[in-house]
Amino acid sequence: LSLMMFEALSRILLSRSHFWVEELSRFLILWAFFLTLGLAGRQGHHIRMTFIVQMLGRRGRLVLSAIGALGGIFFCPILGYGLYRQIDRLIASGIRTESTLDLPMWGVVSVLLVGTVMYFVYYLHCLLLCIRGVDPFGESTEEPDPASPESGPRP
């Protein structure tokens, strides 16, 4: 966000654009997304079909949560293998980014593999919680912000 603000102010105030900011911002947004997937899930911020889940009892919710965790455990290695092969090809070909930043593309893409491994660990943790009888995909684990308008009394 700081880079984008820097670029906007530079264009407005100095009538000067920095070519590298746009590319670097794209990569950083992608990295931030993949590296925070597990954290978002841990805090209960993933999308959930609550109207279906709320109709189920505790055991039904745990079964659905275990199925979701198993799906993630199954999907992450497939994604990780594909990313590993892609990174291997990028290293072999020596492809670099298109701007004058001239970054190796394997370095840019490798964060996706790191995020996938972290997400796999997150899903393993979720499955262990299901086995212990705890719904890992339940309500958010964050404390409500008292200054937030949503935390006030509801009509």
Strand content: under 5%
Mean model confidence by pLDDT: 80
Number of DSSP helices? 6
Q: Main sheet? A: none
Output the structural class: mainly alpha
Amino- and carboxy-terminal Cα gap: 36 Å
Tally of extended strands? Answer: 0
Shape: flat
Order of helices and strands: HHHHHH
Low-pLDDT runs of 5+ residues are 140-144, 151-155
Q: Which bin fits the share of residues in helices?
A: 55-70%
Radius of gyration: 21 Å
Structure overview:
The protein has 155 residues and is mainly α. The chain contains six helices and no strands. The chain has helices spanning 2-14, 19-35, 37-42, 50-53, 58-93, 105-131. Helix 2 (19-35) packs parallel to helix 6. It is flat, with a radius of gyration of 21 Å. Residues 140-144 and 151-155 have low confidence and may be disordered.
Describe the structure in brief:
The protein has 155 residues and is an all-alpha fold.
Which helices and strands occur, and which strands form pairs?
Layout: H1 2-14, H2 19-35, H3 37-42, H4 50-53, H5 58-93, H6 105-131
Helix pairs in contact: 2-6, 5-6
Features:
single chain, 155 residues, mainly alpha, 6 helices, 66% helix, 0% strand, disordered C terminus
